[in-house]
Amino acid sequence: MDKPKIKNVKSPSQIKKIAVRMPKYMRDEISKKMVDEGYNFRQKSKWVSEAVEYMISRPDWEGALMSQSNVDSEIQDVVTFPIELYEMVNQEVRRLISSKPFLNPSQSAIIRTAIQRRCMGIHLLGNK
User: Fold this and answer.
1) Residue 78 lies in a domain
2) pTM
3) Domain count, the chain
4) How far is CA 104 from CA 57, 75, 94, 127, in A?
5) Residue 106 structural domain
6) Can you tell me the distance from the alpha carbon of 40 to that of 54, in angstroms, rounded to the nearest whole number?
7) What is the mean pLDDT of residues 26-53?
8) Is residue 92 included in any domain, yes or no?
């Protein structure tokens, strides 16, 4: 008898783990905001992915990176992204390194900025 397939589970080749440096308060704020928005703690990567995807889909989002220039990154947290989003983030890092290097773009800076914006309510996400 065949095992039932679980929906919405990506194979390891379709996901990438990213280590993100952030201040401790930001990790705590993520947990609080996730619960406020109806997410559980197993959905952290989904919550962060949505924030990143929303932010980089907006025109002229790069200016928000300036808020990350002097962030004290005390801890490291790991999030899992779909490979497509992982590649989009890396593409944005490469684009900004060549066009706006003064922003000091990195994966962590982009992800922290998206988290910060979502925690502040700067998103208009639909379905969870």
Assistant:
1) yes
2) 0.82
3) 1
4) 20, 19, 11, 32
5) 15-119
6) 20
7) 95
8) yes
